[in-house]
Structures are given as C-alpha cells and as structure tokens.
Design goal:
Helix content is 30%, strand content 25%. It is of the alpha/beta class. Helix 1 (10-21) runs parallel beside helix 7.
C-alpha cells in the first residue's frame, strides 16, 4: 500500500519509519526544507514517562486564573476573540476533575512506557546516537504544597508500572550535586531512574537518514493546502511545490501528523480535532563551569521548566559540544511564535538562580515552538471517520516521549494490525489481547 505521511516532525518521521518496516511504500510531505524544523526542533529533550500529570488537573483552574495577565506565568492564557481558544479552554476545564485526571494519567503512562521501550529497541537495532543520557529524570519541588500534592499522582504512576519514587531533598542532592545551592529551598523531589533524555532533533534527522536509505520518499518544501474527499474517502492531497506550482499527490492511505496545524487541515472534512497551539520556549547555551552544571535531566516544578544536557563528541566533520537545554512554560495565544523578552529573561534568571555560572548566558540561543496541545494532554492516534485517513497528532508536552510508540501504533493500525499497547486509540476497538500492557484493559473507541 502507498501511504502519505503529512508532516515531517517527530510524529510523522516515526510513523514513516514504522510504516516502511511493515512493508508499505511511504511518502512524507512537509512545508519546511528540512525535517523536524518546527515544534520538533529544540524541545526539552526529556523522555519522561513520569511527566504524566496533565496540565488539566484539579488544582489547574485556580492557578490559571491567578496567572491571567502575569507576563512570566508558567501557563498563560492570553484571552483572544478566538472561538477555537474558548472551546479548547472549556474542554480543558472539563478535564480538571479528579476522575478525568486519573483517566488521562493512565493513558499517558501506558503510551509513555511503551514508547520508551520502542525508542530503546530502535536505538539498539539502528545504533542511533542523539546525545542520549540514561540517568533518569529528577523532578524537584521548591514548594512544600506542590511536593505534598505530587505524592498522589506519583503513587498512581507507580501502580501503572512507572517507578516514580518520592525522595528527600538530601537524596535529590546526592543524585544531582548541582542542586546543592538550593538545598535550603528544596521541599523534596521524585526520581524516575528509567526515564531518559536526548536531542530530539538529532534523533529525528538520524531516523530520516535511515528512512531514506530504506526507500522512504521525502517531498520537502511542499505546503499542503487541502485534503480532498471523494466518495467518502480521501482521494488526494493538494499542495504547492517549492516553486509555488500546484500539485495533486495520491496514495491509498494518509496519516495526518502536522502537529498544531493538523486541525486546520482536518476541519474542512468535518473532523474537529481539539488541538490548540501552546507556545513554549527553550534556551540552549554552552556549558561554562562544569562543576556547577547538572548531569541528570531535571524538572523544576515551580517554574514548569525541564533541563537536559547534550554532549556531542567531536568528529572529523564537526567540533561537537557540551550544552545545556532548558525548556518549558506555555502560552495559549494562537499561532504566534514571537519571542517574548520577559519570558526569555525569566528562564535565564531561573537557570542562574539554580546553577550560578553553569552556562554561558551570553551565548544563549532562544527558540519558541507550538505544542499541539489537547485539553486532556492525551494525543489523538488512530482512525478518523474517513476510512483511509489516519491521525497521529495532538502530542502536546510529550511528543518526543510518545513519538516512537505512537509511530509504531499508527503503522500497525494502518496495516490492519492490533496496536501493541492498551491505549484509547480513536476509532479502534479495544484490543482483544494487547501484546504489551502494564496493567490490563482500558481502550476506548471514539472516532473524530
Ligand atoms: C518548549 C517545548 C519543550 C518541549 N519539551 C519536550 C520534552 O522535554 N519531552 C517531550 O516528550 N516533548 C517535549 N515537547 C513536545 C514535543 O516537542 C512536541 O510534542 C513534538 O515536537 C510534536 O511533534 P509533531 O510531529 O506532532 O509536530 P511538528 O514537529 O510541529 O511537526 C509537524 C510538521 O508538519 C509540517 N506542516 C504543518 N503544516 C503543514 C502544511 N500545511 N503543509 C506541509 N507541512 C506542514 C510542519 O512543517 C512540521 O514539520 C516540547 C515542546 C516545546 C514547544
């Protein structure tokens, strides 16, 4: 079967790889001239199964209200006359009940655990190098209230097979000595030894290279303008090529993986995807003082920031480098990707507070990306109401963590196979017997 994958971000690339492994002819179409050039370009780098508590949780509504209009707030709704934003906001509120939060954590942990395994397997099979670190993820708290609130979700995650241990402040400093400067402010931490980190963009480019070697076609600099339906299924994709010429591209099946742009292409088909762009920031800087810099990937609960460290060995063709990547915060403000100086400075200030002198802030590179956020933080993977259109989108804060498992799953669904993980795929009946399931049953079958 010929399958067109729409979008060459982490989700599109992973889908293409796994589709090819199942024997399909695969073409990837993307508007950029290089893969992983949008949201998959400079993210926080964490493979964090433990980061499963969704933004929508019982404490979120009050926090969001308190943060309204606060320029450096970790999660900032900039209210606009935008029906998509208001509708997303209302659905977000509905996801804040304790029952919905528990349900969503379960889905996110299941997919995350499976996806991390698929990534590890892929890394072993292909010998991929992407500045990966396998020293776990340490989530630290500077607020006693937030630390106390972390115990419940951490216990739920442990019950689901994600070993997120609650540890003391002293233990946190033993695991990551660079935290010693803030020991007096540390309320405690959680540590998940099996979590990892790595440069998602480098991974994506490596996997594209393997895809091309394996026969996947990439049509870069092609902007998709419409998906055309004839007789109840997708007949072709309309796109413009690099010189602006109109093109029709046809296949047997189509996988929509256009990140936060996915709902714009799906809406004319009557498919309403509850995805809204949530702008995040990242800062990358060279390590200046090794003794002050962190080694373990970290999550700063109070500022909603994640910290990763990338060390690329020098080669004959590249000088390599050792750099810190700090990423996070979220701003719901439509498709605007402007850098807001206040938010950039707030991140650098926090880095200096935690690890004074560790990074060379004079060489800091700032970036913004639009997370394809769903109100529940649960991605949309599976069938649509059109039989040859499949969805692999809406991965929000965890698109790198979930990329490999989502790609493998959508490839199996397109191929008529049962996915290996027990997850609420859209339009797929609950698996009769999932090959991989940390805790048993629970898939649903709504079809957008
Ligand atoms: C600041 C920040 C930090 C993050 N940190 C982490 C982290 O630590 N761990 C983690 O797991 N996740 C993290 N994420 C989330 C993760 O980066 C995203 O979920 C993931 O990159 C989304 O990938 P995607 O393939 O869905 O979208 P994208 O990477 O945006 O890919 C979509 C592709 O579709 C293409 N496209 C769009 N419209 C069209 C069109 N009309 N025609 C042709 N092509 C089109 C785009 O060019 C793009 O290449 C972070 C995100 C941000 C912003």
């Amino acid at each position: 079967m010929h399958v067109i994958v729409l979008g060459a971000g982490l989700l599109g690339i992973s889908s293409a790889w796994h589709l090819r492994q199942l024997g399909h002819e695969v073409t990837v179409v993307d508007r950029q001239n290089a893969p992983a050039a949008e949201t998959s370009f400079a993210n926080g780098g964490q493979i964090s199964v433990s980061h499963a508590e969704p933004w929508a949780n019982p404490s979120a509504p009050l926090k969001v209200l308190r943060w309204l209009g606060q320029e450096d707030a970790p999660l900032l709704f900039r209210l606009r006359a935008d029906p998509a934003q208001w509708s997303w906001g209302l659905r977000f509120l509905r996801e804040c009940t304790p029952a919905r939060t528990r349900h969503n954590i379960e889905q996110i942990v299941r997919l995350g655990t499976y996806s991390r395994q698929v990534l590890q397997q892929l890394r072993r099979d292909l010998g991929l190098q992407y500045d990966q670190r396998t020293q776990g993820i340490l989530h630290f708290y500077t607020s006693q209230k937030e630390f106390d609130g972390a115990e419940g979700p951490a216990a739920q995650m442990r019950a689901l097979g994600c070993d997120r241990r609650v540890i003391s402040a002293d233990e946190a400093v033993r695991l990551e000595p660079a935290l010693r400067h803030i020991l007096p402010q540390l309320a405690g931490a959680t540590y998940t030894a099996e979590d990892e980190s790595g440069d998602a963009n480098r991974f994506a480019r490596e996997l594209v290279r393997r895809c091309i070697e394996d026969g996947v076609q990439f049509r870069m600099s092609h902007t998709v303008t419409a998906l055309r339906e004839v007789g109840g299924q997708i007949d072709h994709v309309e796109a413009t090529d690099p010189s602006g010429r109109f093109q029709r591209i046809r296949a047997d099946a189509y996988v929509l993986a256009m990140g936060s742009l996915s709902p714009l292409l799906a809406a004319p088909l009557g498919i309403r995807l509850p995805i809204y762009p949530a702008k995040g920031y990242s800062v990358t800087m060279p390590v200046k003082d090794e003794s002050m810099a962190h080694q373990v990937s970290l999550t700063d609960d109070e500022y909603k920031l994640v910290f990763s460290r990338y060390t690329t060995p020098a080669t004959a063709t590249s000088p390599g480098g050792d750099r810190l990547r700090i990423a996070g915060t979220a701003e719901l403000n439509g498709y605007d990707r402007d850098l807001n100086r206040v938010r950039c400075e707030a991140i650098v200030k926090r880095v200096e507070q935690l690890f004074p002198g560790a990074g060379d802030t004079t060489q800091a590179q700032f970036w913004t990306g639009l997370r394809p956020a769903t109100p529940s933080n649960v991605p949309i993977i599976g069938r649509s109401k059109l039989p040859n259109l499949f969805l692999n989108t809406g991965h929000g804060t965890l698109g790198w963590t979930h990329a490999c498992g989502s790609g493998q799953s959508i490839a199996r669904i397109v191929s008529g196979l049962v996915p290996e993980v027990d997850f609420a795929f859209t339009g797929v009946a609950a698996p009769r017997r999932a090959a991989y399931s940390p805790q048993g049953a629970g898939a649903s079958a709504a079809r957008p």
